[in-house]
Amino acid sequence: MAEKMHLSILIFTMIGCIVFVSVNSATTHIVGDNLGWSTPPYHGFFDDWTKNRTFSVGDTLRMCHLNSII
Q1: How far is 38 from 67, CA to CA, in rounded Å?
Q2: Any residues with CB less than 8 A from the CB of 30 and at least 6 apart, and which?
Q3: Distance separating alpha carbons of residues 59 and 31, to the nearest angstrom
């Protein structure tokens, strides 16, 4: 009985660690980096921007704009 309890505690702890790591690994990606909310310098800019990144479930895409008068 004690062995089953220790095994249950071990499994519960391992699952908790896996969930903790997966939740804390979410990344916030700033779309376009320093370009801001403006017209991209060339047609394939955002295609090239995405090639250097790996997106996962739980990540956030943040779109920033420069403070300017339009």
Answers
A1: 11
A2: 62, 63, 64
A3: 12
